[in-house]
Amino acid sequence: MRNERPSNEQGTFYVDIPTEDCLNNDSGAWHNVGEFATETEALAFATEHFGADTRGRVSLVPSQMDDWRDKMELAAREMITVLEAELGALRIWQAAKTPAGRLALPDDVWDGMSISIDKIETVLRQAGIDDSSLAGK
Question: Fewer CB atoms inside 10 Å of the end CB: C or N, the chain?
Answer without folding.
Answer: C
